[in-house]
Design goal:
Blueprint lengths: L1 H16 L4 E9 L5 E6 L7 E5 L4 E9 L6 E7 L6 H15 L8 E5 L5 E2 L6 H4 L7 H20 L2 E11 L5 E2 L2 H4 L4 H4 L9 E9 L4 E7 L17 H14 L11 E5 L6 E2 L4 E4 L20 E4 L5 H22 L2 E2 L4 E9 L4 E3 L5 E3 L5 E2 L22 H10 L5 H7 L4 E3 L14 E9 L2 E5 L3 E2 L1 H17 L6 E5 L8 E2 L2 H6 L2 H4 L7 H18 L43 E3 L10 E8 L15 E6 L6 E6 L5 E10 L5 E10 L7 E12 L19 E13 L1
Parallel strand pairs: 5-6, 11-12, 23-25, 24-26
Antiparallel strand pairs: 1-4, 1-8, 2-3, 2-7, 3-31, 4-5, 8-10, 8-16, 9-13, 10-11, 14-15, 17-22, 18-19, 20-21, 22-23, 27-28, 28-32, 29-30, 29-33, 31-32, 33-34
Helix pairs in contact: 2-4, 7-8, 11-14
Bound molecules: 2-acetamido-2-deoxy-beta-D-glucopyranose (2 copies).
């Protein structure tokens, strides 16, 4: 009896003995965006434009406030997009200001990307990031701003006293280093301090309500969400999104695709050189390992790709997602360490092209204006010819091309960036608008002993370790005992990569993309040490130089969608109309099978806003007895795919779209009668006018009808 009551006290001691340590709000909102014809952000592959949906994309927001000071808050947002971006923050802060005044600003709000490479591009403000998306994509941008803002608004509205716990543990089988030869350039005695060449520790924050109900989870773990490779044309939240999906499904039972009160976010950390493709880089043609130093196969970059662990990219996404989700749940379930309830935040803009780094031995060195080296665009997670890794020689014919088309780097820039051979001096390129950032955001958010080092870039493993250690030591010495610092990458603005000075010498992809030169990491160590000092003494640094707002300058050559046409013969008027079925399902399927149906459709880019929080497809099950149908899956579910393609260009100047609904029937799917449904918006072409100029004149976006077409099939 005595032993039992002892256990009883131990379990509930946390709950009954303590008051909630924070006031917390959690919110989630759809940010999927244009599912057709828009380039995807990440691989910078102009041909990789969207053609449907694998999974929906979400913004997940968390607000933490002090219990005794409920207006002292910080906001942490994790978005299923490639990276945080200045233009997005400008838009979101404007919206926040109209509703909340000065409560949520750039000082206390961090907006971070999971780094999925399968979300819409064209929302970043510097030209180099919009070059492959035909410039700025308004619908992608507006949709992200609105969705992120809404997720914060929802979190604001449900703020309530809550318990926030911190836990860490190792996840060994979900990431590898994709540039091990660069990692090995770091000093042997430094490497000897670590068992692995990537960080394996996952950090989890667990949020419980006052009544100990589950409210939310945030995981921090370094891995590129590039399980979906550069041949993928479907919007996808990749492995981090799948991890969120799994946990939200489990914690929000009885809801659709897991959308409920519980929110699980998977943030990224120092993932610069970290790949989920566990079998490493292989040659597509021979299956052999690629050349270790150059990551080529027979001299070609495009043939060398990271693969595994699944049989295809969908399975790899699932496996890497599942491993992160399972570890996160294990850490969630076993978390007992309640954080001290202090909220703290510091933020400063910095001109990263002009930073004086003070050396330990005296003297200073500088950062440089932005430039890419020749190993640009050659990552093993999706490289493009003719760039190869570890390129320290210049390529004369490319230089001629660059000088003719673009810009010759100044001698000062070349000297500053050495030994990087400068291919694109993006910091010196200003047309059609600024190519590269100079002013970046630096920020830290504190929750008790847990401190987020919010960085505007992708840090390599060792660069992240050095920064984390510098900051942890500083905080400990300044009286924050038990300080746990974590890098939060891809936040607020994007300035490519940061590697160590030693890695920089190798000029692999990550080093070639360290745009501010060899001293970038030391500059960040110095800057975040300064921010730590401010964080601990409770003062705000000066704001720093203002972030430029380029929204008015950003142009686009991406046309609006054409009008949608029925697939009818122009003379006879016969043929399928929008919403009609052109490929039916089979009559019977087995569990594990794939059901599919194709409809004449509209372009899914027609109504990005109305389709937010909606679905282009439904899998429905017949209610027995009766003739009603229950929704079972939507396009947010992992077992469905919505495929879109332009079937032909209509003779009348519009286009005919095909929409295909695909359902991978789960092995444990309940037997019954199911049907597949598709829904969307069409854009009306003005009847009778079919001159060639019609394409050039943007048609008003007229959503005349929401068409739906259902079809019955049975499964037994
Ligand atoms: C992408 O993955 C698919 C399998 O899902 C594979 O067939 C293809 O070769 C891969 N391509 C690249 C470039 O990685
Ligand atoms: C940033 O620094 C560079 C290099 O000194 C300078 O040319 C540029 O004007 C600075 N930008 C701003 C906005 O201060």
């Amino acid at each position: 009896m005595k032993a039992i009551s002892c256990v009883f006290v131990l379990i509930l001691g946390v709950a009954l003995g303590q008051d909630p340590n924070f006031i917390v709000g959690v919110g989630i909102e759809d940010v999927t965006g244009p599912a057709a014809d828009v380039n995807m952000m990440g691989y910078a592959h102009p041909g990789q434009t969207s053609r449907g949906i694998h999974t929906r994309l979400y913004s997940r927001a968390f607000i933490f406030c002090e219990v005794d000071n409920p207006d002292k808050c910080e906001v942490f947002v994790v978005v299923d997009f490639a990276m945080g971006a200045t233009a997005i923050n400008i838009g979101v802060f404007e919206r926040l200001k109209t509703l909340y005044g000065s409560m949520y600003t750039e000082k206390n709000v961090a907006i971070c990307g999971t780094h999925t490479h399968s979300g819409p591009a064209g929302y970043l403000q510097y030209f180099v990031f919009d070059a492959t998306s035909q410039g700025f994509v308004h619908d992608a941008y507006d949709n992200l701003v609105e969705g992120i803002f809404q997720s914060i608004r929802i979190a604001h509205e449900n703020r309530a006293p809550s318990f926030v716990y911190h836990n860490t543990g190792e996840l060994l089988d979900a990431n590898i280093n994709r540039s091990p030869s660069a990692y090995e350039a770091n000093p042997a005695n430094e490497r000897a301090r670590y068992t692995h060449d990537v960080d394996k520790v996952m950090t989890v924050l667990k949020i419980l309500g006052e009544d100990m109900s589950d409210r939310g989870l945030i995981s921090f773990f370094p891995v590129h969400p590039v399980s979906m490779n550069n041949t993928n044309r479907l919007l996808s939240s990749d492995n981090k999104g799948y991890a969120s999906y799994m946990i939200e499904m489990e914690k929000n039972p009885g809801t659709f695709h897991g959308q409920g009160d519980f929110v699980a976010a998977f943030a990224n950390t120092n993932q610069g050189d970290v790949s989920p493709n566990l079998e490493g880089a292989k040659c597509l043609d021979t299956g052999e390992d690629c050349d270790r130093i150059t990551s080529t196969c027979n001299g070609r970059t495009a043939l060398c790709v990271g693969v595994g662990p699944g049989k295809d990219m969908f399975e790899s996404t699932k496996i890497i997602g599942e491993r992160q989700a399972n570890k996160a749940m294990e850490l969630y379930d076993s978390a007992t360490h309640l954080l001290d309830g202090t909220v703290g935040f510091v933020h400063q803009h910095v001109n990263m092209t002009d930073f004086d780094v003070k050396l330990d031995g005296g003297g200073t060195v500088k950062t440089c204006k932005g430039a890419f080296g020749y190993s640009l665009r050659s990552a093993t997670d999706g490289g493009v010819f003719p760039f190869t890794q570890s390129e320290t020689e210049t390529m004369p014919y490319l230089e001629v091309l660059r000088d003719a088309l673009l810009s010759t780097p100044s001698a000062e820039l070349v000297a500053c960036q050495a030994p990087k051979p400068v291919l694109l001096p993006i910091g010196e390129m200003h047309t059609p608008w600024e190519w590269a950032p100079a002013i970046i955001d630096t920020q830290m958010l504190r929750l008790g002993e847990f401190v987020m080092i919010v960085v505007p870039a992708e840090f390599s493993t060792m660069a992240g370790r050095r920064l984390r250690e510098t900051i942890t030591d500083y905080l400990e010495n300044d009286g924050l005992s038990g300080a746990e610092a974590e890098i939060v990458g891809l936040s607020n603005t994007y300035s490519d990569y940061v590697v160590t000075e030693e890695e920089y010498q190798t000029q692999r992809y990550e080093a070639a993309s360290t745009i501010f030169g060899p001293n970038t990491l030391r500059a960040y160590q110095q800057q975040y040490t300064y921010l730590s000092e401010k964080l601990m003494d409770g003062s705000q640094p000066t704001q720093g130089p203002p972030i430029p707002n380029l929204l008015a300058e950003m142009g686009t050559t991406l046309a609006d969608p054409e009008g949608d046409e029925d697939d009818v013969n122009i003379v006879t008027g016969l043929g399928p109309k929008i919403g009609e079925l052109i490929m039916d399902t089979d009559d019977k399927y087995r569990q594990g099978g794939v059901a599919m149906a194709t409809f004449i459709a509209g372009n899914p880019r027609n109504d990005v806003f109305r389709m937010r929080d909606d679905t282009f497809l439904k899998v429905q099950r017949r209610v027995v007895p009766g003739s009603n149908w229950n929704d079972v899956y939507t396009d947010a579910d992992f077992c469905t795919r919505f495929l879109w393609d332009r079937a032909s260009t209509s003779r009348r100047g519009g286009s005919v779209s095909h929409a295909t609904v695909v359902w991978d029937i789960p092995l444990d799917q309940t037997l019954g009668t199911y049907r597949l449904a598709h829904k969307g918006y069409r854009k009306d072409s003005v009847k009778g006018i079919y001159s060639v100029t019609k394409k050039a004149i943007p048609l008003p976006l007229k959503c005349v009808a929401s068409y739906t077409e259902d079809r019955t099939s049975s499964s037994s």
